[in-house]
Design brief:
Chain lengths: 366, 366
Amino acid sequence: VSKDKGGARRFATVPVALGDRSYPIHIGSGLLGWLGGEIARHTKATRAAVVTVPAVGRRYAGRLLPSLREAGLETGQIAVRDGDSHKNLREAARLYDALLDFRADRATVVVALGGGTVGDLAGFAAATFLRGLPFVQIPTTLLAMVDASVGGKVGVNLPRGKNLVGAFYQPRLVGIDIDTLASLPVRERAAGLAEVIKAGLLWDAAFFEQLEGNAENVLRLKPEVLLPTIERACAIKAEIVAEDERESGRRMLLNLGHTLAHAIESLSRYRGILHGEAVAIGMLFAARRSEALGLCPPGVAGRVERLLGRLGLPTDLPPYPRRAYLSALRVDKKRRDARIQFVALRAVGRAETVPLTPAEILPAGE
Amino acid sequence: VSKDKGGARRFATVPVALGDRSYPIHIGSGLLGWLGGEIARHTKATRAAVVTVPAVGRRYAGRLLPSLREAGLETGQIAVRDGDSHKNLREAARLYDALLDFRADRATVVVALGGGTVGDLAGFAAATFLRGLPFVQIPTTLLAMVDASVGGKVGVNLPRGKNLVGAFYQPRLVGIDIDTLASLPVRERAAGLAEVIKAGLLWDAAFFEQLEGNAENVLRLKPEVLLPTIERACAIKAEIVAEDERESGRRMLLNLGHTLAHAIESLSRYRGILHGEAVAIGMLFAARRSEALGLCPPGVAGRVERLLGRLGLPTDLPPYPRRAYLSALRVDKKRRDARIQFVALRAVGRAETVPLTPAEILPAGE
């Protein structure tokens, strides 16, 4: 671990322990210009197809590509369309086509450079092209750094629902260059922080308390807090995923706030609200419901609300009718009262799943 | 192992040893009406989506579905279009849609009932829908029984090439009901036998000799030879795949005859020739080349030629110009002399890969 003059750490590595699919997450400043050699070493690839959206490519490909070439890799850059509405099978087919143009073979590493959407789409293509190419993720948004880069979930949307097609496909390496956050709008930084707060809230009370102490400084990208915060958020997710790679048990806890978030996103047709903002609302809702159900002591929801509010994150349910929420919560349309594994809080730093019907999650009059 | 009055075995199980992805291949007569309980036991599923083409569904779904329902599974039948030309992303999207209509969840098993095309397509959908549903294969062609049912290769074609998109995704169970072969045209039985012969030729001299003794009886579906032949062919492939699931080494030997076969299929635009027929031609070609290169003793190619000929399988390269073959063999269009891992024979029952250029595989004047 190197430190700069001010004593702040400049580099950290979080191991994700998944047996023969284990991989490291490198976090640091100036990483884009250094990752080429690491990618070559971890993948043994001879060529790298860097998949990115135009705006991110213009900004950062010029740092990454020379580093790959210096490491002896032949490079190509593939642009995909920006936005979740293009994370679909059609865009995947275009990406396959571009990989064929690049003459990608099994010694070609697919490098996703961008936010979660690019990572999901490029990761799905990597998982399926020629039955699987080596894959590296370089997330450039805070949300993708702390969420999408751990756990290997890749995939695309179908017209009838988000992320319905995909795979669990682990990258060989994740490289997080915190410098890329400088170009990220504050609103998106805050939305990413919502997932960081979620990690503390469900797993690590001390980390949640730290965030209560320094959240604004993370938002302002103060180096002395930014790197350790990303590191701890990744480590929490890595710890949970290592126990339950395919989401059959404990990994479900990571869905804290997401039951309501998905309903909100669906009702708003994914417009006007960022995923992290919907998670903020859902997380506070889960804390309030947990208190109301007597699952956790009073006061937890208040702490969550104050922290989210300080970051300018939304906290109130958008005013759709209750019946609209209930309908959005019903995953099994045939059985209206089917129970959902709702993630509730027992305390700050401790969550558990509780099977609740939509009407129990959202009782009349709340 | 049960035997009928004539002493012929009625049932066999071949284990495919892949660690926590291990699965059994059950082979027998009358299996369709018995598999439901096995599928329930191996998958813990509560619902089964049986994917098939209309012709196969009409013939066999009526045996399989009641058995699934007796085992407590809710069943649905999904028809996909027949033929390799429909093994593509568009048909996969239609299949996802049908799975949504069936309200498939992670407790839904996808059962592929049909030939290799249905298995590849349904397997790809199973591998990717909701990031992976349990999958069961019930192959109804000889080729699919001995080839596609072992090894977990699933996938679809792209307009620019076959099987370019897919996954290694192991079924939980394979059920081979040899009764379904009765409706298979003799030409397709012979094409399937080409892959059986290939297995003996590359791995098991004694098995090859047995086939020299009884191939016509296998073609006529004589029960006393049919079941042990399918069993041994599956066991050989299972043995090789268990050593090398992701085809980085020894599994490449299974490509014996396939370098030329793919060129022939591509040049004929996949019309007028069955895959097994192209493999027959390619396998004999490989035997002759191996003799000419001094890699195996004279006489091997003659034995291969006689055995294939007795089954009415084609043995001569279709008369496309040499330059057309060379072009079809060049996988790397940029480097004309790039070497291909050509599977050569050292003897009956023993193969090895030899790196050869297209011009060395197909020298002028041959």
